[in-house]
Q: What sequence folds into this?
């Protein structure tokens, strides 16, 4: 699949996901996050929550085209139908070889991934567990690595324990409004 075909496939996937009310990131968010990945030379990435694979395709395409076989994405999702759909799309776009999938509860899978270290971690899963995902991700993040959390404006009420935790531990982070109704949280590990 060439780049033009891939972009059309991705655009159609986003439109179909929106029609089905799948909570994908927006194209604006994806573009913004891809710039962060590029700026930080991200080669290894962990995604917590892949839904139908829209964000996963974005990250896998970037990693494959930037780092070929050295680029690696791990993705986790608790929903078997969503996980399987994501891998159907990855396979159709010939991006599956750069992706290691983990089906199950991220709270149980993250500790198992302890032998891995990632340049970037993207959290876009069950909002009520965002603080726990963040805490469990910290040991997996390389020094100077970045954690990006989606939906922090729209669902801030569901993530209040995360914000309390960040404040209590004096973590420095930035919230960036990236599209018309939401934004992301960006945190760099020192």
A:
């Amino acid at each position: 699949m060439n780049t033009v075909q891939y972009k059309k496939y991705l655009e159609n996937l986003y439109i179909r996901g929106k029609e089905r009310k799948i909570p994908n990131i927006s194209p604006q968010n994806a573009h913004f996050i891809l710039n962060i990945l590029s700026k930080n030379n991200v080669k290894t990435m962990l995604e917590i929550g892949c839904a139908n694979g829209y964000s996963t395709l974005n990250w896998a395409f970037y990693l494959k085209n930037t780092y070929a076989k050295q680029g690696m994405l791990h993705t986790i999702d608790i929903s078997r139908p969503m996980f399987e759909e994501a891998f159907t799309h990855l396979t159709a776009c010939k991006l599956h070889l750069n992706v290691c999938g983990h089906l199950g509860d991220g709270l149980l899978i993250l500790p198992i991934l302890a032998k891995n270290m990632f340049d970037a971690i993207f959290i876009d899963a069950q909002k009520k567990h965002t603080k726990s995902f963040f805490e469990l991700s910290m040991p997996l993040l390389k020094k100077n690595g970045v954690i990006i959390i989606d939906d922090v404006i729209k669902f801030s009420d569901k993530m209040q324990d995360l914000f309390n935790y960040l404040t209590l531990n004096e973590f420095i982070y930035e919230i960036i409004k990236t599209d018309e109704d939401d934004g992301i949280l960006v945190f760099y590990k020192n």
Notes: The chain has seven helices and seven strands. The first helix runs from residue 3 to 19.
